[in-house]
Design a protein that fits this description.
This protein is α+β, with helices and mostly antiparallel strands. The chain has nine helices and eight strands. The protein binds flavin mononucleotide. The site of flavin mononucleotide has 8 residues, from strand 7 and helix 8.
Length: 271
């Protein structure tokens, strides 16, 4: 069976599928009915645009892909004003309620996130999800342990100047690394080339989470340590050969932000 099938009974040879294909591999046949030549199948990114844009439901992708159950939700209910306010209102959360995050909720967020864009639709992003607050705390402790060792050594690191202050905060009983978050998601992948896709996926996670009542914070300090400190890598326990991409804290915000803080104006060259 060819990777993409075209139903000649339904197809009206309108040509939309050919125009919309990102890699221009859907060619019209002599009768106008399109086809994907076998020698081009390897270039198909399985993006599904041909199937999704066909006005006559004449196209099927014959590869495993998981569409949402409600395939035709009315997204016009979210108007641009509401969405702009929603995006402007998203904030990093650093104080969480002492309340676990349900795995089921993270799964629902990931159900949105798996539709985030990725280069050539490779969808390389994988997830390590921690919903045990004690496990998150362990990661904070290992990060501080690494920072303490670094601060006491004569090693060089671009973030060295902040390590003593973070260690002091930890010694005072605070958690400046994971902020006592009850949950954490860590995007990872087969190799470093998926990094941009992971950041896009996490950005999507960051945006979707508040609609589920959850708050997030990018965990940059944890990531700095996780790339360097073997005991921390071992605690994260990724399968062999996998690369950590970036972590994000997750939990229920303890405090409500009552205003949208200011930000720089968009810096644009208009042409
Ligand atoms: C890549 C990246 C890494 C970050 N790492 C940390 C971190 O380690 N700790 C922290 O408290 N905030 C971290 N943040 C959050 C930023 O400080 C925050 O996004 C910024 O101050 C703007 O605030 P807002 O997200 O509430 O708009 C990080 C943000 C990004 C994008």
């Amino acid at each position: 069976m060819s990777l993409i099938s075209f139903d000649p009974e339904k197809c009206t040879a309108c040509g939309i599928c050919s125009q919309i294909c990102p890699v221009n591999i859907i060619l019209p046949g002599e009768d106008g009915i399109p086809s994907l030549p076998a020698e081009y199948e390897a270039f198909c990114s399985r993006c599904g645009h041909c199937e999704a844009s066909c006005p006559h439901d004449a196209i099927r992708g014959n590869y495993p892909a998981f569409a949402p159950a409600d395939n035709a939700a009315d997204t016009t209910k979210i108007n641009s004003e509401v969405l702009t306010k929603y995006v402007q209102s998203r904030r990093s959360i650093r104080v969480f309620k002492d309340m676990p995050v349900e795995k089921e909720k993270i799964a629902r967020i990931l159900e949105a996130v798996r539709f985030a864009p990725s280069g050539v639709n490779a969808q390389p992003v994988k997830w390590l999800v921690i919903t045990d607050a004690a496990e998150v705390k362990k990661l904070s402790a290992l990060t501080i342990e690494w920072m303490r060792r670094m601060a006491e050594s004569d090693a060089e690191h671009p973030f060295m100047p902040i390590f003593p202050a973070l260690v002091a905060l930890s010694d005072a009983g605070l958690d400046p690394i994971c902020r006592n978050a009850p949950g954490l998601v860590y995007a990872y992948g087969e190799n470093a080339t998926g990094y941009t896709d992971s950041i896009i996926a996490l950005t999507t996670f960051d945006l979707v989470a508040p609609s589920f009542g959850l708050g997030t914070c990018w965990a940059g300090l944890l990531h700095i340590a996780a790339q360097e400190y073997q005991p921390l890598k071992e605690a994260l326990g990724l399968p062999e050969g996998q690369v950590l991409q970036y972590p994000m804290l997750v939990g229920y915000p303890k405090y409500k932000l009552r205003k949208i803080p200011g930000r720089k104006q968009a810096d644009v060259i208009w042409k």
